[in-house]
Design goal:
By secondary structure, the chain is of the alpha+beta class. It has helices at about 5-20, 25-30, 115-120, 160-165, 185, 200, 225-250, and strands spanning about 35-45, 50-60, 65-70, 75, 80, 85-90, 120-125, 150-155, 170-175, 205-210, 210. The protein has two domains: about 1-30; about 35-210, Immunoglobulin-like. The structure holds copper (II) ion (CU).
């Protein structure tokens, strides 16, 4: 369901609440158009890092609404806000690399060593501007700092769409805390951005993008439970809370 639709739904639920009307009339609003498909990646740390996060991608045609949260990454690099390059990779095995992908034995799976697992950059998850692979190493438009609340609506290219369809799309957030890796790797340079240390471009968080099966199997026939249904669920929850509070207030005090 497009964001506008969700807003309308929330507004409708709020209006019903204000009017004190029964809310059991919203079932038809729940039906999804069947056009959107939602993917989710659970971002787990690798290379001895400590962060975690999630990314949800709602796809309507080639328009992707991306909502991402992560925390626990390195906040600073050389005393300045740490640029965490992040991408949707794809076209390979659709996996996050295992520690055994560290072929040069420096204790860190570099972004190049991870490529057989997650493939090349398909989309750059920049905070503004270019989202193509060309922007993949642009530190200016990368998110900075230890934590991120990210929401962006972008158009995906054919290669990214194909990766999502074939199940090879993987979200990778780069940038290691240098204090959490060995000395050899800490002193190595990045093979991706020669001006940066290896740590700055090695993968810190990774998660494969998988279709979300909300409330059962996704038949692709539409009408599956999407984000709109969850918003509605929360609305109903809030409403029943409000109703209880109202009932409590109406009860005569003793
Ligand atoms: Cu990447």
């Amino acid at each position: 369901m497009p964001i506008e639709g969700r807003r309308t739904l929330v507004a409708a639920v709020a209006a019903l609440a204000a009017a004190g009307t029964s809310v059991l009339v919203t079932a038809p609003v729940m039906a999804d158009s069947g056009k959107t498909k939602t993917y989710q990646a659970v971002l787990d740390p690798l290379n001895g890092q400590t962060g975690s996060g999630t990314l949800t991608l709602e796809l309507d045609g080639r328009t992707a609404t991306i909502v991402e949260h992560y925390s626990g990454l390195a906040g600073k690099l050389d005393g300045r806000p740490y640029p965490h390059l992040q991408h949707i990779h794809g076209g390979a095995r659709g996996e996050c690399p295992a520690p055994s992908a560290d072929t040069n034995g420096d204790g860190v799976v570099s972004t190049v060593e991870g490529k057989p697992a997650y493939g090349p950059i398909r989309t750059t998850l920049s905070v503004r501007g270019d989202t193509s692979p060309t922007a993949g190493t642009d530190l200016e438009i990368a998110p900075h700092g230890a934590a991120l609340d990210y929401q962006r609506v972008i158009e995906l290219d054919d290669a990214t769409l194909a990766s999502l369809r074939e199940g090879t799309a993987v979200v990778v957030v780069h940038g290691l805390d240098p204090s959490l890796i060995g000395e050899k790797a800490r002193n190595a340079g990045s093979e991706l951005v020669p001006s940066l240390p290896l740590a700055a471009t090695a993968p810190a968080l990774c998660g494969a993008l998988r279709p979300m099966a909300a409330g059962g199997a996704d038949t692709g026939a539409g009408g599956t439970a999407g984000p709109g249904t969850r918003v509605l669920g929360l609305g109903l929850l809030a409403l029943s809370g409000a109703a209880l509070a109202l009932a409590a207030r109406r009860r005569p005090s003793r």
